[in-house]
Amino acid sequence: MVSRLLKHLFVPDWIARRPFTPAVLRTIEQAIRDSEARHRGEIRFAIEAGLGPTHLNRATRERARQVFSQLGVWDTEENSGVLIYVQLVDRRIEIVADRGITRRVPQAEWDHVCRAMEHAFKRGSYEAGAVEAIAAVTEILARHFPARETNPNELPDKPAVL
């Protein structure tokens, strides 16, 4: 706990966020836009660097659930929202899916996507890792929530940088 606290206190946000340049964020946004044309799900991508003291007592999964709520990912017509949450200082990724999806997709599938993304990030492949994760989420959502003739975009495609 102490080492986590020190990392979050002393790693400046701008250093942690450095791999996510404006160009990388635009690529992620476009990948989400392209993805959502293939299914009825809604994807939000959130990047967070350092956590404040009030959030350090929470596990990454708990923080991801909180961000899921704060960003309104739960607020879709078919309960088909998915949050890809990237905690940069902890080097952890979590995917939180809304209840409409969790009935059909086991958490193990999401965890597999998270670990693959973490592995890509460890290699320094931030853009490719994010785009590959979005592609994997796309395949899962297209299988369970294929696109229909009307497919409204209910949530922003732009990544949230917290």
List keywords for this structure.
single chain, 162 residues, alpha/beta, Diaminopimelate Epimerase, Chain A, domain 1, four-stranded mixed beta sheet, 7 helices, 14% strand
Characterization of this structure:
The structure is a single chain. The protein has one domain (2-161): Roll (Diaminopimelate Epimerase, Chain A, domain 1). Helix content is 48%, strand content 14%. The protein contains 7 helices and 4 strands; from the N terminus they run H-H-H-E-H-E-E-H-H-H-E. Strands 3-2-1-4 form a 4-stranded mixed sheet, with helices on both faces. Strand 1, helix 4 (60-70) and strand 2 (81-87) form a beta-alpha-beta unit. Helix 3 (22-36) runs parallel beside helix 7 (126-144) and helix 6 (107-122) packs antiparallel against helix 7 (126-144). The mean pLDDT is 91.
Map the helices and strands.
Blueprint (H helix, E strand, L loop, with lengths): L1 H9 L2 H4 L5 H15 L5 E7 L11 H11 L10 E7 L4 E6 L1 H4 L4 H16 L3 H19 L15 E2 L1
Parallel strand pairs: 1-2, 1-4
Antiparallel strand pairs: 2-3
Helix pairs in contact: 3-7, 6-7
Query: How many individual domains?
Result: 1
Here the CATH topology equals Diaminopimelate Epimerase, Chain A, domain 1
CATH architecture: Roll
Placed side by side, the strands forming the largest sheet appear as 3-2-1-4
Number of DSSP-assigned strands: 4
Mean pLDDT across all residues, rounded?
A: 91
Radius of gyration computed on alpha carbons: 15 Å
Structural class: alpha/beta
Helix content: 40-55%
Sequence stretches where pLDDT stays below 50 over 5 or more residues: none
Shape field: globular
Q: How many helical elements?
A: 7
Beta-strand portion reads 5-15%
Distance between the termini: 22 Å
**Strand/helix succession:** HHHEHEEHHHE
**What about the largest sheet?**
4 strands, mixed
Q: What would CATH call the class? A: Alpha Beta
